[in-house]
Amino acid sequence: MGRLAQIGRRLAQAIRKLGSVVLFLLTMLQAMPYALRRPRLVTVQIHNAGVLSLVIIMTSGFFVGMVVGLQGYDAFSRLRQEDLLGAAAALSLIKELGPVVTALLFAGRAGTALTAEIGLMKATDQLSAMEVMAIDPMGRIVAPRFLGGLIAVPFLTAIFNSVGILGAYFVGVQLMGVDNGAFWSQMQEYVDSGDIREGIIKSLAFGGAASLVAVFEGYTADRTAEGVGLATTRTVVVTSVLVLILDYMITSFLL
Hints:
By secondary structure, the chain is mostly helical.
């Protein structure tokens, strides 16, 4: 009975947590018009979440593409189908690696920054001060940061994919000797609009999930340094698991 009671308590705690996330999301959506009427608030957050993440996104994308090029060349050379390397690299990056790795990198770099920023504002009573001055923290602080992440992740994913394909091209064509024309022509033949649409859908879903987790954890963090640190850790862990779960669900639905 003790074990069952413990499982029941954890299940009830998880349900309460899910309910609080849903209520938080609904409250934030109600505050969206305030943020949308002040586009400068959103553009600043797009810069913070997107532009400042370009270095790690481009560096990671290039080396991920190089690894895909090496592994793909090794596999296709055994089948005497090296010309398919371009198509295989593009499909793997556009449909899977690009959206997933970009979301994980976003959570590690920008998501933690969002959580820590909002958490510290709460710990230092800045959010309470806004409420005293009749300023809604949801519209002024939370909603612009959510929108910034939601908008930035698809663009970061596109950049990751482009740089990754260049990395695969560098390894496959420049180092391994795959025919240049075959690399690009096979990519054009096998990659269609449906593959690109799948990547866009995933990047939007992952961006929304990562941004929601980041702002929620920051807004609900305890008012202590330890609480902010734990919230930052939860942001990375929860986002990583959620992105992988969403990846499977979206892939199975689209297929």
